[in-house]
Amino acid sequence: MACGFTSNGIIGTHFMAYCGDLGLTATFAAGLLALMGAFNFVGTLASGYLTDRVDPRLLLAVYYVVRGLSLALLPLLPPGLAFTAFAVLFGLDYIATVPPTTALTADTFGRANVGTVYGWIFCAHQVGAALASWLGGEVRDVLGSYGPAFLASAVLAVCAGLLSLGISAPARRDARPAA
């Protein structure tokens, strides 16, 4: 749920409107989203590589804490080119949580159950995205700013990172990295 809330829900839905609130053009904001997408590709591939070599619980913790810090910094950044650094950082982390989450699902529930269990995880992801889409808009309408919504999302992401460290260690990893 935290992943969907802090990615698709708050950034995917409200980032362009936030840029508009700050006087940035839709073209500039769309370019930042495209940049996030490009770095998302790089970050997810790197995450898959790392998941085969590093404890996925640790990776999730790092990814969520970095995501949280980037969301906390967003309202503090001056509008414009500083958002480019945010787009790169957030893009690297956008979907990087999928490989370690999938690995932990397989390790915890068995390879034969990955499809079903991950389906429920993805359902929770979408519930989080829907909540952030709605709540982010409510916060903006009531308070006149997306800042508090980004900060609340940051807290949720950091909490998810800390909770990731509490996941029980798998008995063994079935897959070995390719040579």
How is this structure best described in words?
The chain is mostly helical and 179 residues long. 76% of the residues lie in helices and 0% in strands. The protein contains seven helices and no strands. Helix 1 packs antiparallel against helix 2, helix 1 runs antiparallel to helix 7 and helix 2 packs parallel to helix 4.
Topology:
Elements: H1 2-21, H2 26-51, H3 56-73, H4 82-93, H5 98-109, H6 114-143, H7 147-164
- DSSP summary: helix tally: 7
Write down the oligomeric state. Answer: single chain
Provide the gyration radius in Å.
Answer: 17 Å
H and E order: HHHHHHH
Features:
7 helices; single chain; mainly alpha; 76% helix; 0% strand; 179 residues
Brief account:
The chain has 179 residues and is mostly helical.
